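Listing S7. Sequence submitted for prediction.
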Amino acid sequence: MAQFRLQGSKVLAVDLTGDTVRAKNGSMVAYDGEMTFRRRTGGGEGLRGMVTRRLTGEQMAVMEVKGHGTCYFADRASEISLVPLRGEKLHVEASNLLCTDGALRTGTTFTGLRGAAQGNGLFTTTVEGTGQAAIVSDGTAVVLRVTPQTPLQVDPGAYVAHTGGLRQHFQAGVTFRTFIGEGSGEAFQIRFEGDGLVYVQPSERATVGGDL
């Protein structure tokens, strides 16, 4: 299995011994050893994946890297977080997914919330299986625990990813900036309930739901 490690906080080093990883297209910044690179159609899921992603608007251009040596990945100096998966499922915005172990399965799932916040449909990317994934964020990501006793409200513009058995609820007409009188237009939050982890970034991307 490929070994993921960070070189600082903005470069991902992946040690390969004949293994395969999938990474955001164009994210390779250097490598040593013998590597092959191949662009994968539809996020590496073949024709079915390509059609699904065109219908859902959850775009993810992916390259497959295989070989012996070390390959280095980065994405516009974004901060990188490693997410170990042991059979569970990671939900992540396609733009925040940097690299996954080749053994992990990727897909698209209906969410009804984050996609609407991003303006790219009502779907998000999933990564499932055993292995490691690397996600990027605008600033160092904060990992927040959700338990049945402690639900969590998240600004859609700050959401990056989540794992675990979490349920999501849409809350319209309220935003963090509303409380201090800086909000404008219709805005909303995402409420997470259950047991799991939520990754948020200390920066807000533009959303359709208003000035968050």
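Caption to Listing S7: primary sequence and predicted structure tokens for the chain studied. Confidence is low (pLDDT under 50) at residues 46-58, 113-121, 208-212. The longest helix spans residues 46-56.
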